[in-house]
Amino acid sequence: MDAVNHQFRLAARPDGMVGPEHFDYVEEPLPELTDGQVLVKTAYISLDPAMRGWMAEGRSYIPPVQIGEVMRAGTVGEVLESKGQKLAVGDQVTGWLGVQEYAVCDENAVFKVDAGEIPLTTYLGALGMPGLTAYFGLLDVGAPKEGETVVVSGAAGAVGSVVGQIAKIKGCRVVGIAGGPEKCAWIVEELGFDAAIDYKGEDVGEALRKHCPEGVDVYFDNVGGDILDAALARLARGARVVICGAISQYNKMTSMSGPSNYMSLLVNRARMEGFVVIDYMGRAPEAVGEMAGWIAEGKLVAREDVVEGFESFPHALQKLFRGENVGKLVLKV
Amino acid sequence: MDAVNHQFRLAARPDGMVGPEHFDYVEEPLPELTDGQVLVKTAYISLDPAMRGWMAEGRSYIPPVQIGEVMRAGTVGEVLESKGQKLAVGDQVTGWLGVQEYAVCDENAVFKVDAGEIPLTTYLGALGMPGLTAYFGLLDVGAPKEGETVVVSGAAGAVGSVVGQIAKIKGCRVVGIAGGPEKCAWIVEELGFDAAIDYKGEDVGEALRKHCPEGVDVYFDNVGGDILDAALARLARGARVVICGAISQYNKMTSMSGPSNYMSLLVNRARMEGFVVIDYMGRAPEAVGEMAGWIAEGKLVAREDVVEGFESFPHALQKLFRGENVGKLVLKV
Questions:
Q1: How far is B89 from chain A (nearest CA, A)?
Q2: Distance CA B260, CA A260 (A)
Q3: B60 → closest Cβ in A256, A257, A267
Q4: Which of A79, A163, A206, B101 is deepest in the core (most CB within 10 A)?
Q5: Which fold has domain B4-125+302-332?
Q6: CB distance from A12 to chain B under 8 Å?
């Protein structure tokens, strides 16, 4: 295998919006495989809000990407060569192989996926980290009960779109907050949400009052900022606020905004809780199995927004933070 | 009974610091007792941070005090006349009789206390609402385990001083945050806290790093603002943040500050939860019994800071918000 491997490596830590200037586009030869290793050709790269956090210095739930390292990313791809025991040429696998066209890795660092019935890209979306994040964040942390009102922000995104659909499957009333009429129409008409709030065109607080007359029992937050504050102001008694992300805050030059309505937690005897999906990896097969069943039954719609061209990685990542994707954003290599 | 009753009635809703201009000092004759009623002479009036919230308009856990109403307050006093079945002249009682020298009320609206061994004022402090708030907030919401690190703000106040002592009784390492060397010395030397942080003289973040090398397992917050943010930055994995109050924010002219470090909840898989002590009233006898036992054994120190003179009520209340009290602040009538 004489192919040249192209990679995006972290060049600088961003202060504000992430952009091409924070990455080096490099090429290097592929190393020889040693025993137990496989060569994987990347098919799709996952673009996730969490990547912005991994580029920043400082203590978090996993170490930051170091300057000069290949940018961390989830991937799906195909085994081109194998010196392993379990994986064979032609197998399709998912793993954390980073923003590169090829990767040589231990065969145990990737997982074989059954991409017969289900598109490979779905293993980066509804059956990948975003889907698991939605599943465990909603069901374990949010713990919605049938008949409760669930509100999710970033509702047309990879996580939010699955959160809302699982909440519907569980018999909840579901309101999604998203930006723009296209996204709002999609989550109501295609995904079956009960209502959508267009934060770009509506006053979120007023819309929540209208769509959640009994208050919000579970609020699943992907965005932070003013929308989190608006949701806090509408909590029902005993509400659970699930902190999954804060995409509105990640690229700010100034420090994060805190939720000034947090005392609503006291008034409403409510809790706000964070989680990291990595902690649930032991239970991933259970969740993937159940969600694959829902997809097969047509109860869960998995949609990926595919950007083409490996070189466009930095611009594709910006698209994510500008909220321009509908469904799970992936880069086709 | 021809006595004249003096009262403080709410005259205006404060925007910033509460003061004499927000109350009317009035006098009125006492009404005749009807069947089932008692006349109670107020001995002590409880001064609590929550009073600031009750003076504000808007949805909260109990309705606001209306303009013209006697200001709501917890009280202890003595029965001077009784047309009830259960209470007799000379009984000492506690209840929500408001900021007035006398009150005529249904005998079921007050509770008889056994003030033989324990000072009457303690029924407004460690054995009253603040003590119950500390007991249920710490044990039920914070749920500390032996050996964990518990940090409490407002640590020399009515609630915080009890929180820290209960945490010590439960085998925790306890760090208190208070303002000034006198309070800090008191909580360590008299109450047995492991360490004190003087937020007026120290960088709270650095001091937390020093005193909580393994992070903060339970943070019991009475103050909000910068101190809440500093504590969030030092959470241990799986930490519980108990939202009890936000006294630093109550008298601000601008809107509340939200905790900009709230994403620490995600990184540390932590939760932040509010509660209202009223919800635990059914279990009050259990808590009062246990805490009275601790007081008798010398394990729980109950201290009240007594201001004399009914007329000084508005100024005494300001003392609370200026953090000038050590222990439970009460007004002697």
A1: 38
A2: 9
A3: A267
A4: A163
A5: Quinone Oxidoreductase; Chain A, domain 1 (3.90.180)
A6: no
